[in-house]
Amino acid sequence: MIECKNLVKIYKVDNELEVMALQGLDLTVEKGELMGIIGSSGSGKSTLLNMLGGLDRPSAGNLIVDGQSLLNMSDKELVQYKLQTVGFIWQNNARNLIPYLTARQNVELPMLLNGKRKKARAIELLEMVGLGHRLNNRLSELSGGEQQRVAIAIALANQPKLLLADEPTGNVDTKTADIILDLFRYLNNELGVTIVIVTHDMKLTKKMDRVVAIRDGKTSSEILRRKFFDEQGRELLMDEDGEPEDSHVELAVMDQAGRLQIPRDYLEAIGFESDNNKVQIELHEGRIVLLNPDEEQKKSC
Ligand SMILES: Nc1ncnc2c1ncn2[C@@H]1O[C@H](COP(=O)(O)OP(=O)(O)OP(=O)(O)O)[C@@H](O)[C@H]1O
């Protein structure tokens, strides 16, 4: 569904300063996948989502979504792409919603922009997100979690193949966040829509099969759900409460040139100083070992 290769985004600030928000990012997302993206503030998560949603254009690299290259698209094609291929859900749902319209009118609006007005479809979508009983309520009469569900129905209005959500649970409590994630999972199963969710919430990431971590504008690691097997080699399916502590494993992502990012706390554990930019790499009994060169030199004296 998504093929990002060596994606670069440079922002120009005051026509002089350049900020390299994405520094050669690689990412593949399969059709029908529900996956998460995490990373500290400023790592490039929103920039990536904006590129995927066609809200901004990449500076270089390759970005293909549903067979369409977002680098070479004309402005007209980009408008169609935004209307038909992707749906967006923001943390601040004021970007999705119009407060003085009812839930149903809000969902009808994007269909109207796409040249169709389908009352029945709007009702169907609101029922799908569990708001069949709130169709004619104005947005201001709904709770934060309910408003976010209207935002999801709006994002689905034009039957997108890809749903992008930027911190969709950032403004709601933990219980509502769980309900919203369950809703995403339900929609993913029912409609087969591919879903990419940016989140800070590590608890949410524990509920996903795959989470990609971004650091300094690059994919640094992938957190994958581990598979557990019984004595006969059959896969054990866990319910959420029965999941063990080590339900996920984190793997570093290596780029095509063999480069990988080493977590800062690992470097600190070997006494690596941040003003030093070299580590000693050794092959030891079939394992690659990183050593602090200063410590090694002291030992050999
Ligand atoms: N429009 C812009 N103009 C200039 N710099 C920008 C712009 N948008 C983002 N940046 C810079 O690009 C980098 C990545 O920003 P981005 O918003 O993608 O990070 P993020 O991981 O989403 O952060 P957060 O979790 O705080 O939202 C940051 O250094 C940011 O200051």
Automatic annotation (TrEMBL):
<dbReference type="GO" id="GO:0016887">
    <property type="term" value="F:ATP hydrolysis activity"/>
</dbReference>
<dbReference type="InterPro" id="IPR003439">
    <property type="entry name" value="ABC_transporter-like_ATP-bd"/>
</dbReference>
<keyword id="KW-0813">Transport</keyword>
<keyword id="KW-0067">ATP-binding</keyword>
<dbReference type="InterPro" id="IPR017911">
    <property type="entry name" value="MacB-like_ATP-bd"/>
</dbReference>
<dbReference type="GO" id="GO:0098796">
    <property type="term" value="C:membrane protein complex"/>
</dbReference>
<dbReference type="InterPro" id="IPR003593">
    <property type="entry name" value="AAA+_ATPase"/>
</dbReference>
<dbReference type="GO" id="GO:0022857">
    <property type="term" value="F:transmembrane transporter activity"/>
</dbReference>
<protein>
    <submittedName>
        <fullName>ABC transporter ATP-binding protein</fullName>
    </submittedName>
</protein>
<feature type="domain" description="ABC transporter">
    <location>
        <begin position="2"/>
        <end position="241"/>
    </location>
</feature>
<dbReference type="Pfam" id="PF00005">
    <property type="entry name" value="ABC_tran"/>
</dbReference>
<dbReference type="InterPro" id="IPR027417">
    <property type="entry name" value="P-loop_NTPase"/>
</dbReference>
<dbReference type="InterPro" id="IPR015854">
    <property type="entry name" value="ABC_transpr_LolD-like"/>
</dbReference>
<keyword id="KW-0547">Nucleotide-binding</keyword>
<comment type="similarity">
    <text>Belongs to the ABC transporter superfamily.</text>
</comment>
<dbReference type="GO" id="GO:0005524">
    <property type="term" value="F:ATP binding"/>
</dbReference>
<dbReference type="InterPro" id="IPR017871">
    <property type="entry name" value="ABC_transporter-like_CS"/>
</dbReference>
<dbReference type="GO" id="GO:0005886">
    <property type="term" value="C:plasma membrane"/>
</dbReference>
